[in-house]
Amino acid sequence: MARKLKSDKLLFMATLLLVCTSVVMVYSASAALGIEKNKDPYLFLFKQSTWALLGLFLVPVIMRIDYRNYRQPAVIWTGLGIVAVALVAVLFKAPVNGASRWLGVGPLGVQPSELAKIVVVIFLAALLERRMDRIDEPQHALVPAGLVLAGILGLILAEPDLGTAVSVAMIAAVMLFAAGISYRYVVAMLLAIPPAFYLLVMTEDYRRRRVIAFLDPWSNRLGDSWQMCQSMIAVGTGGVFGRGLMGGVQKFFYLPEPHNDFIYSVISEELGLVGATLVLACFCVIAWRGMRTAMRAPDRFGSFLALGLTTMIVFQAFFNISVVLGLAPTKGIPLPFVSYGGSSLLINLVGMGILLNVSQHASAGRVVTTTLATADA
Asked: Which end of the chain is least crowded, N or C, by CB within 10 Å?
């Protein structure tokens, strides 16, 4: 029987600290841009604060919904249907910066691909709970999972949004691996990466240029490598303690999108190694406590749900930080809970609410010591 509502305080505090950091740093990074765009230094601060308050209001509400309700077929197929319709609808919207990713809902804009992440996690968790014992039989588990994933990934790539598509694929790969999928399928997936990389990246001019810029950023620092070089300059000039809050220089139109994909650069410049390390530590706590929840969940569905949600947040965070530090090619993947953006912030907080609910039901004494495949049915 579930324990009384006692959530993981460390998990919640790490999330809350990141959201508070977001509100402060989005203002610091965007004040100059807000003045230029609308003569209002608080333009982005007001929007981000509104989404943060809405998300933090939803977290305790979501925490009170038993996660096992999400395994109902009506919930899963309704979610998949809504995501599919929304992903198709955005393709008919006018492109913004060469991509059609946003769907207007009144005065607000939402990104259906963000919702797709949580829906995929719930779908796979329910599927693997029922069919994990025959995971290596293609018709039983792999084909149904593959068909749904192919449909969603295809629609996301059509926007185009390679970053989100890679995130969804990574979530699915981690969950399937944890379910005990045969290594022959793992090898097959690894062998499929090079041709997929060539097809999706090297055949697109702007993506190919990003990869070339990543391999030798300083050779074209005034062109395709501008973002990466300015980001590394911001990180390097921050030193140990930084220039001080609001004291950064790169955000003044040297670093594109300083409040969004490169907000970690601003944090590194203004708060230094100490501030950047604290933010990284928060994501490490989320990874630790999320995996702990997955290993102690009372059933397979809870285990896979916690694993998928943890992967959703942690993979995106470490990929974003890798881009900022010049360890990965530039890609528009925001830093969860921190980067400016209502859809991403809200969806991640909803996912955290679900994860916290799973933690309420986790048994303090039961730990899975091998893989999720050993969990009781």
From this structure: N
Tokens 């209001």: give the residue: 57
Q: What is the pLDDT of residue 357?
A: 94
Domain segments of the chain as ranges:
9-362
| Paired tokens of 365 | 């004494």
Give the residue carrying structure tokens 């249907």.
81
Bridge partners of 110?
103
Half-sphere exposure (Cβ direction) of 296: Cα atoms closer than 13 Å: 21
Cα distances from 35 to residues 27, 29, 343, in angstroms, run: 12, 12, 24
CB 17 within 8 A of CB 282: yes
DSSP output for 132-174: GGGTT-IIIIIHHHHHHHHHHHHHHHTTT-HHHHHHHHHHHHH
325 class by beta-carbon count within 10 Å (0-12 exposed, 13-18 middle, 19+ buried): middle
Report the length, in residues, of the chain. Answer: 377
106-154 pLDDT tens trace: 556 778 899 999 999 999 999 999 888 888 787 888 889 999 999 999 9
pTM above 0.85, yes or no: yes
